[in-house]
């Protein structure tokens, strides 16, 4: 929703720059409760964030730095990690006079407004914009509005399995995500449903072609090779092949009824590719269900979203 996007989206907008242009403009923003954005330039010894507003200095007191800081449910690293990055806020007041004037800001208030007016209305299946904030072995964390962070577990990032989210994402990458579940104020995300069905992905490949892929796992019965984030094929066993290598593979056959792609590995080499922005097949704002498997396949892989928020 416009006005509640991930941090960094509004900092260069005309209306944001105009509100930071002068003390009078900041006062008007205070009166209207407008959510603004500036760059945090310092976190002092008391963990107050100093923000460059252009016309004056701004300060976000520690307890106003994020939802959960005051209650102790969010650690102060959430504040320290914002230095040299955009932060959203509302203006709550001013202290000092003239050149010594400081605008008092609240990131917490901006996040609370985002939750009350936007995030609390989300239901499973809603599709939203997000920005990757950091990566862990178990999943990717993403800003879904005004610095409010949600988790995308590693097994929901794509149908093709990966060892670490850094194989798909980089910090700061803008992505789309589906709301998987909401428990209280904890939002869990998924992306695999946006990356296309088996048939949509397989349509880009044809028998007899030699294409690029990534080795995902080496098993006694064969080698799984990713052709796209939501499509993998099985190659015959071959020596000196290891997971995460790039590969050139020959496509022997594509079998929709069995949801299989049979491959032959031509060559393998070290993977030096950096994550690319995802390609999304689904572009609407909500989905009720996602059927990955082809209609002719007896094996059904499906996601059904329910609107029950716990």
UniProtKB/TrEMBL annotation:
The keyword Ribonucleoprotein applies. One of its GO terms (cellular component) is cytosolic small ribosomal subunit. GO terms for biological process: translation. Residues 125-192, 208-234 form the S1 motif domain. The keyword Ribonucleoprotein applies. GO terms for molecular function: mRNA binding; structural constituent of ribosome. Coiled coil: none annotated. Keywords: Ribonucleoprotein, Ribosomal protein. Pfam families: S1 (PF00575). PANTHER family: 30S RIBOSOMAL PROTEIN S1, SMALL RIBOSOMAL SUBUNIT PROTEIN BS1C. Belongs to the bacterial ribosomal protein bS1 family. This is S1 RNA-binding domain-containing protein. It comes from Caproicibacterium lactatifermentans.
């Amino acid at each position: 929703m416009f006005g509640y996007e991930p941090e960094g989206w509004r900092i260069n907008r005309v209306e944001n720059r105009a509100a930071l242009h002068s003390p009078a403009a900041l006062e008007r923003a205070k009166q209207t409760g407008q959510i603004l954005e500036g760059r945090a330039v310092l976190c002092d010894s008391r963990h107050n964030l100093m923000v460059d507003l252009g016309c004056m200095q701004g300060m976000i007191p520690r307890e106003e730095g994020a939802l959960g800081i005051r209650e102790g449910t969010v650690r102060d690293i959430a504040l320290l990690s914002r230095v040299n990055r955009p932060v959203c806020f509302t203006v709550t007041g001013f202290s000092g006079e003239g050149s010594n004037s400081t605008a008092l800001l609240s990131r917490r208030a901006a996040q609370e407004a985002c939750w009350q007016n936007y995030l609390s209305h989300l239901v499973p299946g809603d599709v939203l914009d997000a920005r990757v904030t950091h990566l862990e072995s178990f999943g990717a964390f993403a800003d879904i509005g005004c610095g409010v962070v949600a988790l995308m577990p590693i097994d929901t990032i794509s149908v093709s399995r990966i060892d670490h989210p850094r194989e798909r994402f980089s910090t700061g990458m803008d992505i789309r995500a589906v709301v998987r579940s909401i428990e209280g104020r904890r939002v869990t995300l998924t992306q695999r449903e946006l990356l296309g069905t088996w048939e949509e992905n397989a349509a880009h490949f044809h028998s007899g072609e030699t294409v690029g892929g990534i080795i995902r796992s080496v098993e006694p019965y064969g080698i799984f090779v990713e052709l796209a984030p939501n499509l993998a094929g099985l190659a015959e066993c071959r020596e000196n092949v290891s997971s995460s290598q790039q590969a050139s593979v020959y496509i022997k056959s594509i079998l929709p009824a069995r949801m299989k792609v049979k491959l032959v590995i031509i060559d393998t080499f070290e993977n030096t590719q950096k994550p690319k922005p995802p390609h999304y097949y689904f572009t609407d704002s909500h989905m009720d269900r996602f059927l990955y498997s082809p209609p002719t396949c007896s094996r059904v892989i499906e996601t059904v979203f329910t609107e029950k928020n716990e």
